[in-house]
Fold:
Amino acid sequence: MKKIALSLILACGVAMAAEGNATAADAAAAAPAVDGKALYAKCAGCHGQDGKTKALGKSAPIAGLDAKTVEEDLKGYKAGTLNKHGMGGVMKGQVAAFSDEQIKALADYISKLGK
Structure:
């Protein structure tokens, strides 16, 4: 009798674990994609809608930079290790709350500006 009860408990536990994994996978699949264009709205005030403005008259235009460079730069600003054109402090504040996924989407969007 103990073996049967133990088998039932184990079977229920496996079924519940499988259900939990399916639910997590379903939730991940249903999550909306990160919108680089929407994130760029925060950047447009300084860099311009087309990314061709020198931010605060200091930085080079960002339109059309390759996505890898933009992603690395944004991560450097976020970490506080990058200070291009003396803009490290300003940029750190701008990207501090962005996740890696958001930074990647934003970098991809910026790389397509001006093309």
Summary: Residues 3-19 have pLDDT under 50 and may be disordered. The CA atoms of residues 4 and 75 lie 55 Å apart. The domain at 36-112 is CATH 1.10.760.10 (Cytochrome Bc1 Complex; Chain D, domain 2). The chain has two domains: 1-31, 36-112.
